[in-house]
Amino acid sequence: MLRAVVLGFGVLLMLAGALGITLGAGAEMLGPLIFGVVLLIGTVFEPYYKHSQRAGADEGFTPTGERFFDPTQGNVVEVWYNKTSGERRYIAVDSKA
């Protein structure tokens, strides 16, 4: 639901910016156009980013046993740690498991 709202808002901003530039409003409409494009790109590619984080958890990462509820994602997150790099990853736990 939120994803659809953000996509719709991005499309509206992009169209308003393009229409404003076309009708002669000038450089003032460049901001909404660029912001709309950034919203669209970020929302469209977000699932691929989440998948790459989840897939990389087994590449030298081990679970720490830490789990907590992340209100921003709305689900339980598990902490994974890489001893060689010191990097920590927070991976959403599949609620079906």
What would you say this structure looks like, in words?
The structure is a single chain. With 97 residues, this protein is α+β, with helices and mostly antiparallel strands. The chain has 2 domains: 1-58; 60-97, no CATH class. The protein has helices at 2-22, 30-55; strands at residues 61-70, 75-82, 88-92. It is elongated. It starts with a helix and ends in a 5-residue tail after the last strand. The mean pLDDT is 83.
- Span between termini: 24 Å
What's the domain count? 2
Helical content stands at 40-55%
Give the CA-based shape: elongated
Output the structural class: alpha+beta
Low-confidence stretches: none
Round the Cα radius of gyration to an integer and report it: 19 Å
- Which strand order spans the largest sheet, edge to edge or round the barrel? 1-2-3
Give the number of DSSP strands: 3
Main pleated-sheet profile: 3 strands, antiparallel
Mean pLDDT: 83
Give me the strand/helix succession: HHEEE
Summarize the structure.
This protein is α+β, with helices and mostly antiparallel strands. Helices cover 48% and strands 24% of the residues. The protein is elongated, with a radius of gyration of 19 Å.
Give me the secondary-structure topology.
Elements: H1 2-22, H2 30-55, E1 61-70, E2 75-82, E3 88-92
Antiparallel strand pairs: 1-2, 2-3
